[in-house]
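Before the break, one more example. Copy the sequence into your notebook; we will annotate it together after we see the structure.
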Amino acid sequence: MSTSQLKAIATGHEQKKPNNFPAMLEAYKGEVARALPRHLNAETMTRVALTCFRMNPKLAECQPASVFASVIQASQLGLRPGMLGECYLIPYKDQCTLQIGYQGMLELVRRSGLVDSIGAYLVHERDEYKVQFGTDPGVTHIQHIEGDPGQVKFGYAVAKLKGGGTHVEVMTLDEINRIRNRSQNVKNAKKWDKETPWDTDFEEMAKKTAIRRLWKVLPVSVEKTMAKAIV
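Here is what the structure looks like once it is written out:
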């Protein structure tokens, strides 16, 4: 769906404008289908979007067009809201925005075709680890899997590129928290006493932050794929 069409829906200039998000989703299912890549279909996307909408009553307080626009954006990226942390529909006052999750960022990088493997991990205080920089940087990490692993100490992301080469980015907990606190979504949520994914899914968001740091040193074609997803 074009920007002009979305504006027409939002301003009521389109005839027979649906007056709620479920009706809008049904009326413009064809636009969702046209936005989707081949690995997803409109029935799946509309079902997933409706599930997210019904599970979060605050989305019903948003302008229907803003919720629909977020679903279209998710469709263009080929990510499913609320599914395995791919992306989220985030309400703020009367507007909905799309926020890409950790799994969604991994999916977008993998689709570039230039990365053999990519992942992000958090190191807890009872884990065994060694961090090395210099000419042969890397992280050795053995997770504590029996019982409470303790508090998070730091996070890291690593990508192995096709044809050879490995990139590693390490972030302290203080660095992660500073980025969280700079987020406009977090600032707005605090102001209005609302929760964000940082409150409900801290570890996933911390991993996403490490992936974002790693993304800056990935090949240019990966950067272009990811550019529209950084929110």
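The first helix runs from residue 3 to 11. The mean pLDDT is 85. Try to locate both features in your own notes.
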